[in-house]
Prior knowledge:
The protein is built from 29 helices and 74 strands. The chain is α+β, with helices and mostly antiparallel strands. It is globular, with a radius of gyration of 39 Å. The relative contact order is 0.05.
Amino acid sequence: MALRWALPLLAALAGAGGPQSFELPGAPIENIEVSGGAVLVAGGSCLYELWPELRPRRRVVPAPGQGCAEPPGMRSNLLLPYEEDGGAGVLLAGWTQKDGTCQVWERPSYRQRLNRSEVVSCRPDGSTAGVVFQLAGTWYLAVAATYSAGHYGNRLDCQPSQSDEATVITVRSVAELVSREELGIIKRKKEPLHFVDALRWGNHLFFPYYTWKARSGNDTELPSMAVLQQLHPAQGGLTMRGQVYLDCGCRSLIVSSSLVRQGERGWWVGVFHHSRGDKAWNTTAVCIFGMEEMEKQACASTHFIMNGKGCDARSIKKLPTVIHSGLVAVYGTVVLNQIVLFLGTDDGQLLKAILNEDMESNCPEVLYEIEEETSIFPKLRLDPVDNNYIYLSSASKVRRIPVANCGRYVSERECLSAKDPYCGWCSLNQRCTLKENCTRSNSIKGWYNISHAADKDLKILLSFPAKNQIAVNASISTPLTSCVIKIVKPVEIYYENVVLKNSFCFCNLTTSVITDNDCLLLEASLSSSSWNITQTFQLKNCSRCIHKGECTSCKWMRVSPATTCQDSCNETASKGITTAQKTEHISIHSIEPLWISTLGKSEITVKGENFTRASGIKLILTGITGCKPEIIKVRNVLNDTQMTFALPPTRKEAKSICIQANGKKCSPPVTLHYVSLPSCSGITPNTSWISGGRRITTKGRNFNVVDSVIISDDQRSNLTVSRCPGNESEYHYLTPSLSYATEGKAVDMMLKVETTFIPCVKLHYHPDPVFINYQLHTELDPDLELKIYKENDKLNISKTEVEVYLSYMNGAQTKKIWFNVQNITKKPDRSTILCKFKREGTDKIDFSTVKVFVKLGNFEHEVKPTSSHIYLYVLILLPIVVGVIIVAFIVTRYKSKELTRKQSQQLELLEYEIRKEIREGFAELQMDELDVVDSFGTVPFLDYKHFALRTFFPESGGFASIFSEDMPQSRDQTSKDESFNMLHALICNKNFLVTLIHTLEKQKNFTVKDRCLFASFLTIALQTKLVYLTHILEVLTKDLMEQSSNVQPKLLLRRTESVVEKLLTNWMSVCLSGFLRETIGEPFYLLVTTLNQRINKGPVDAITCKALYTLNEDWLLWQVSEFKTVTVNIIFEKIPENESGDACQTIQVNVLDCDTIGQAKEKSLQAFLNKNGFLYGLQLDEIGLELMSEEQSRELLDIDGSSEVMEDGIRKLNTIGHYEISNGATIKVFKKKTNTRSDVDYSDEHCHLILPDSEANKDVKGAGHKGKQKFKVKEMYLTKLLSTKVAIHSVVEKLFRSIWSLPNNKAPVAIKYFFDFLDAQAESKKITDPDVVHIWKTNSLPLRFWVNILKNPQFVFDIKKTSHIDGCLSVIAQAFMDAFSLAEQTLGKEAPTNKLLYAKDIPLYKKEVKAYYKAIRDLPPLTTAEVEEFLTQESKKHENEFNEKVALIEIYRYIVKYYDEIVSKLERERGFEEVQKQLQQVKALFDEKKKCKWL
């Protein structure tokens, strides 16, 4: 029961694929709005229009000629879309650029109508809020902004003139955006204001705001609502109605705002924030104010200059509807006449609260939680097309989140009692769903919701059965499971002595809190097996009723929790509190710790006084409003001043805790922070010497809930290390000694929280540092200078870690001098530690007794002095060494000249060429870095249907196209076809299906291709029944094991020779599609993009597609001459096909002088895409290039009259160098007049970089080819393979580790389930060889799924895979599979290059793979319910994706083809009599259709 809080979060994270999202490239979100069928997101000086599913539709750059993030600091502060008469879309966009620019755009073309400055605030810290409205056929903009911060802010260049400094609210015609007196200009008094929102209700405008000084926390003035009346310009324009204070528990800031329209009534919902700095359980709150009430009460002129007299300042006081520690966003809507609030928090949570008619909130549900815990953007918006989704913005990413997790309710009773207006019971599917997700939801009994719930009219009733007693029962007579009674005012008291009797409960009230002139607020909570309810009551004149049993004078009524007693009541309440405080016995001094994880805490300590004298001590743990408080009894009273409690696990939030004893008032509340489990992001340094004691700093979050740091390895587990003072984001500790550690020994560092161990980082141990000797310089008396020499190592020791001291004898005493370490300098042969000490006094040091010691953590070492004999040896040997060097130099020089004279000129040339190529290859390998594009835009994922079809039918394009077509008839029409229904029912008979598959596999002409096709048809036919398909997979896999176990179990699942092997591939594709898209997709696409970029960095032969930079030796272009980069200016003309493009623009493009004209076109179009984020609009064969010059322009072609013709008639393609194009040249892109392709179709009659006779020439070695042919050997260029590997190595490793890592220590459900299944089968078959299970897992996941994906990116992305990319990916895929292999590879010098390329990396990868398999095995096993829930969710996602009818037809064709064999098999088996009849009926029905030429 304690983990019930986690159910909403688990349901929110149940989808393996995660929510749909869009991420701004390198910029945070600054504004978001929805309009019609589009989502508008602003950030990084750019505006993005998205489809409702968050697919990019268009990008708009507001500043012409500039890119995104230009100019720096520019941000969006206004986004107002609306539709004019006739449906034309218009967008007003405000930016802090220049003087506060507002632009008017026509949508969807985004043609700019108007650009006006000084409309919105230009201040980065200023505020702008606006609303668009129509009056007498004219559109107006009412905008409130902080144009000037007065004396609170710095004066900026965009500061308004002194006469306009006080302007805060203006009305402007959208046609010109100019402020005019007749339209309305409102000015403030002295105090600058910060506006949060702009709202229109009736003929009034509302602007919530607070004073600028309230942000500093020094002012407690309440926030306000400014109300303005909109009049026709002829009647005076916008007039100030006044201002009214909004009191939400004395909170002085507003951070988010939402208007809720409920019929003819309007409610304003605001998130209020305390201005104090410390985060507490009640820092933020949601309060709800009526629009009519604010309109009537607003008449004061506290902050504005008004015409006429205003009234005295008034305030509207509301008690909070929701109290929370960190609310930052709110959005309210009405569903089934119930107000639903969506709330965002500062730690990345999206909450949903449902209000009843008294504006009371239920216990808010966690709809979604952002893993990075980034704060939610203040604006939440519903999907404009499908209101079952809400857009959640945080940092630079916007996500599309479902508004309800109906699937978490498993029964009809739970579904209806949840009282979620979005959810209802779908009778046909027997599931709790959204209405749109229910089949036949429009029928009377097809889908029903809370309006049909038995407790929809449920209420709580009060009675007074005896003296000092109060009884509570529900209006519906149902046995109760729990009852809680709490006095709210005048003193908050929880009653534990509640007596529960069937359908009612009662308790004895504490009489001391009730006075004769009383005002008692009481809260009662009742729960049954099917519902729970909480209501608040106000009791008046109840003293005689309760004390004397005379109840005629007691009056009680239901009230909202926000109801407050009258002033006289408050006076009585204060007296009651005073009385309670006098009678309170215990006092609380401190509670520790106040930061714990969501796992709870086994022990917290409370310190205070008089604990042993008190009775009934309990801790009240209260979270967000609406959630039931937890009452926790004391665990142990240690003594009169200390006691302990155990806190349960709960969801992430700050809660209030108080201690209550003797039935008296609770102690003042203290904030207790429940935070998520800690996580690590980095470690400094990441090494330690073996002796230990090195101070390590680990960075991450939530370290203040860590109990200890554990270091563990294969020889010593769970070693606790000592902790140093740290904070929430840094953890400091000292490394322990590991005497047995070897060079580079890696140990795991884990964080221990309660009983949970959280993997953090790896720490590497190296041998203790080796100190060679020292030199002590005493000639600088009184200063001492000490130089200590040490060997270079991998420890990267800093000067702050080294302690150096000198000991010497002073008589019989040993004295120490501690040196100050100045610096550590590193040279190739050794490192030097420079230390200094300034002596004071007249003490003399006996240098003959000096000893020098170095201390690093636990390691302390005496350093020996430099031997004086060394200098003598150096003086003796120096002349000898110099003489030897001179003699050797003379001899070598003489022989070199002799050799040079004997060599021919041709050999000199060959040696030069070889040296040059090898040196360039080596230099490139060491220095070259690939400039990987930081942001490659949105990943072009294929939708699920096309991904699945390309996986199911990799070589059968015809079937993929059939299933991709729109279904000819709806599912309802298909369901009426009896033949298909009967065939589907027959397939859903497990025994028949298994028998059918085995029978088909025994037929000789049932080929491997047929087996794969049948498995894919079966997968599509059972796409919505994944639970059943999984059971079939289990049975067939067990049968396959029986077939192969007697021969060779290690061959299981290695080849695709049976239906079950292809079925397993398809099943993995279905179940891992979400994981592939969410986790693997981005690094995989980055790899493909990086490979393309690397290949195009050097020469690429246009005929063979071979390249200088590649991973595959077969694709290596080694017949290459010298080349250089040429930077040209490409002019792109404005064309009708490109609606997104601006006017003519020029882009600098880097090409190679050996590039063909076609290759230059490709690079130009790619450069246009990289800069603008969208395509130019014309295909490659639709554009031409024209070289611009002062004399005349010239069209550039691959083949023209100037093309070089070789001796054998082969024509060489023209290149940039052929046209002698130099740096800075200007080339124009133009659209060809005709669609006919003018470029040649390359054939054997053309060549580019590989000359026709180059293969013969390389053997000639230049001897007889006019002396011009350079010596070329393929092996000279193998370094290009290594340089390519180095350039993309980090991207490859990122991809590999994203595949074999466990984010959040969780494995995808499909992988965990199938690996556990294989482990169980091995155990049942008594297979003790661990290698067998390892091979099974490798054959089932990496071999059957991941390699297929790695080699075929076109299965996942909407891209074309070239043959060259395929060759490179094959090398990477081979390395990937080698990592999973158990065989040790022994490679020689003659081994293939694709094996040698990753030979050194494979051992590390193998260790990581084994750790990955072990981590999955160590995870808690999944329950059957969890697996079936996952499969059910996946089935639901893919409903109506495929034309299942086509799959059934194809399956039936196989049945007909082998009908006699199938019937014969059924006849031989028992229990298939009924199945035979059904099969005959299916055949008869299909035969009848065949007569009608239906099939």
